[in-house]
Write a structure and sequence with these properties.
Bound molecules: fe (ii) ion
Number of helices: 7
Order of helices and strands: HHHHHHH
Number of domains: 1
CATH architecture: Up-down Bundle
CATH topology: Four Helix Bundle (Hemerythrin (Met), subunit A)
Largest sheet: none
Length: 175
Amino acid sequence: MATTAKSQSTSKSRKKTRRTGTRDPLAVKLLKQDHRQVEAWFDEYEQLEADAEKLELFNQIALALKVHTQIEEEIFYPEERGEVEDDMLDEAYVEHDGAKKLIAEIEGMQPSEEYYDAKVKVLGEYIKHHVKEEEQPGGIFAQAKRGEEDLDAMGERIKVRKEELMQKMGASRPN
Ligand SMILES: [Fe+2]
Ligand SMILES: [Fe+2]
């Protein structure tokens, strides 16, 4: 072990700013923002005690996930066919379906019921896994960024579609 090299590298705790020219194009930036938002809400859910608050926050999470998955399925995934490995995209669709089923199941329950919290927790873990597949090095977003699609222009379309879907789905949700 080269202890001298080690002490040298740890002496300077310079904050890493990974600006290596890999700025996220708008489409990726927006989708990542959605991911961070939902992750924060899942964390927040863990702190809640009152059923009414749990229900309200879960509905918020469910709406965000439905809109997000639909945008990826309508715009991002199909337009990235050819740029991103087929297997990866196929698995992403299947994971979306799994999440949708679990969301529907939770929507059919009340927070007072047994396993409600557990199901929300498992949904959160499931989403975390899926998000990793999208964001990890070599994952869907990384492959998309290396591709030919104009992801800034796609981002503009994603923005518009998100507005529409939030209104449409927000107005027709259960409870
Ligand atoms: Fe996804
Ligand atoms: Fe996503």
